[in-house]
């Protein structure tokens, strides 16, 4: 059975127990992507920093798209409410036999991922229930886990990219993973 590594990131309304998902992005090791922006996040939890750095980097919601889905060559884009996200994300994961999930500082990301499916026991059967953290991989390779992911993964080019966009951040996690494991 072939296992595909999938790298993901989320943007959410804050580092607290009642946080809500704003966006989520995935990129597989073979380059297939999934990106969703949620329209039902708790706007009362949005502060100035989130407004400028996260909401300002949303691409679909700003275009006025709602309840839309676009799939092409294994890539999927969705803008809509949380309830509509689950079946679309399940469909995206179904293109892979077995999935190993990687993220960065994934405490909140993994909880929000499981919340999409209602419970950890309800995640798609082909998704391995134990996530992996790029922070731990940095530490295991003797690199300070507080390193700039963008500089490490893609050098100076990163300055032009939209930090705090879930899909871009997932791409950066993948670039870091690829560089960290290049000689393994």
Sheet bearing the most strands, described?
A: 7 strands, mixed
Structural class: alpha/beta
Tally of distinct domains: 1
Q: Tell me, briefly, the overall form.
A: globular
Identify the CATH architecture. 2-Layer Sandwich
Secondary-structure element series: EEEHEEHEHEHHH
User: Percent of residues in helical segments?
Assistant: 25-40%
N- to C-terminal distance: 21 Å
User: Which sequence of strands runs across the widest sheet?
Assistant: 4-5-3-2-1-6-7
Query: By CATH's scheme, which homologous superfamily applies?
Result: Ribonuclease H-like superfamily/Ribonuclease H
Helical run tally: 6
Rg of Cα set: 16 Å
Strand content: 15-25%
Number of strands: 7
Q: Please name the CATH topology.
A: Nucleotidyltransferase, domain 5
What would the average pLDDT be, to the nearest integer?
89
CATH class: Alpha Beta
Unreliable parts? none
Write up this protein.
The protein is α/β, with parallel strands linked by helices. The protein has a single domain (3-180), classed as Ribonuclease H-like superfamily/Ribonuclease H (Nucleotidyltransferase, domain 5, 2-Layer Sandwich), CATH 3.30.420.10. It is built from 6 helices and 7 strands. It has helices at residues 48-53, 82-93, 107-116, 134-140, 149-154, 166-180; strands at residues 3-12, 21-28, 33-38, 68-72, 75-80, 98-103, 132-133. The radius of gyration is 16 Å and the shape is globular. The model has no long low-confidence stretch (mean pLDDT 89).
């Amino acid at each position: 059975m072939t296992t595909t590594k999938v790298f993901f990131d989320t943007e959410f309304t804050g580092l607290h127990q009642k946080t809500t998902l704003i966006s989520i992005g995935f990129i597989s090791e073979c380059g297939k992507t999934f990106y969703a922006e949620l329209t039902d996040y708790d706007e009362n939890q949005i502060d100035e920093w989130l407004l400028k750095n996260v909401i300002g980097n949303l691409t679909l919601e700003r275009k006025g798209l709602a309840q839309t889905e676009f799939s092409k060559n294994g890539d999927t884009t969705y803008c809509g409410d949380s309830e509509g996200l689950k079946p679309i994300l399940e469909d995206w994961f179904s293109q892979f036999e077995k999935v190993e999930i990687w993220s960065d500082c994934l405490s909140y990301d993994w909880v929000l991922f499981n919340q999409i499916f209602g419970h950890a026991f309800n995640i798609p059967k082909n998704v391995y229930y134990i996530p992996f953290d790029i922070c731990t991989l940095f530490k295991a390779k003797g690199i300070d886990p507080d390193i700039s992911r963008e500089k490490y993964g893609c050098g100076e080019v990163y300055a032009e990219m939209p930090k705090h966009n879930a899909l871009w951040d997932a791409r950066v996690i993948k670039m870091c993973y690829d560089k960290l494991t290049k000689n393994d």
